Amino acid sequence: MMTKVIGMNEILEKALLYDFYGELLTDHQKYVYEQFLLEDLSLSEIAQNVGISRQGVHDLVKRCGHILESYEEKLHLVKRFISIKNKLRVMEQMLDNYNAKDEKVILEDIRRISQEIIEAL
Amino acid sequence: MMTKVIGMNEILEKALLYDFYGELLTDHQKYVYEQFLLEDLSLSEIAQNVGISRQGVHDLVKRCGHILESYEEKLHLVKRFISIKNKLRVMEQMLDNYNAKDEKVILEDIRRISQEIIEAL
Asked: Is B39 on the interface with A (CB under 8 A)?
């Protein structure tokens, strides 16, 4: 299998974009793009599976990436969800580090974060 | 102004759909649809403003509604956000009703809700 020159963060970002907007692709685009993104097959392997040229797979994968990115540029939903998830993680950590001595403080912090999340929705 | 035969829940639902997916409409569609949805003008008033027929406005508004609904049918993002918002409201209420006697219970409940929200993201 060909090694891809693609960093982990980039893969995660593409996966999030696909998770949010993938249903807006056609069935054919999803079929090909999933092999690239989720099954991690090389372009040549996908080309064989789908019965189109390697260049055809390359173009389709690139186009799908652009389509998903253009939805994010307009709707910013991935960005919004990451922000909410981070706030919730902070809340979880506070609960993990909970100490009975400062329950007042922690409850106030949780309330503040909860309000921030509601405002971010 | 013409009274619209449209319930409050329906308006709220349309407003949420527009809030989430409105940026996927064209500028012209947004211009007309906002007058209908946000400024609450009648079809005749919008027709005068925009310089198209009342029937043209009617068709455009209907078409915009369908476009926004079709995005929701595919992505379910409004449904997901409503679910998260409801969970956060429960959390807020728990904090409002906080009583020092049962801080252990409330913190466990908050942790459970927080995990539910993360899973729903």
From this structure: no
